[in-house]
Amino acid sequence: MTDPIADYLTRVRNAIMAKHKVVEIPSSNLKKEITKILFEKGYILSYKFEDTAPQGVIKIALKYHPISKVPAIKSLKRISKPGLRKYIDVDGLPRVLNGMGIAILSTSKGLMTDKEARRENVGGEVICYVY
Predict the structure, then answer these.
(1) What is the pTM of this model?
(2) Distance, CA of 42 to CA of 28 (rounded, Å)
(3) Using an 8 Å Cβ cutoff, are 47 and 56 in contact?
(4) Ramachandran category for residue 32: left, alpha or beta (phi over 0 → left; psi -120 to 50 → alpha)
């Protein structure tokens, strides 16, 4: 697999389109941090890290509106790819949906959202957009 982050986002996107309640994804430290950010920002219901297999598994419970069954995540878009990395300084940090969505960045201070990066005054690699 050449791009494990794109695989992570695609698995979540496919599970949402199929209206699944839980999706299992092979684990890595970067994927765990992305999952924690999605949980903190309210895009997923819950998550569990299981280290039973050699690599481990992340189980993500997807979040839907209780009445209309509309998913909390409308779009997951990979920005920086292995063939073309996208780096942004603090002045050029993106605003996703005019502040309604989040951009996940990999910075020198760890993985964080665009709003946290503005507060910390750091730039970095734009991993993905979520809204």
Answers:
(1) 0.94
(2) 21
(3) no
(4) alpha
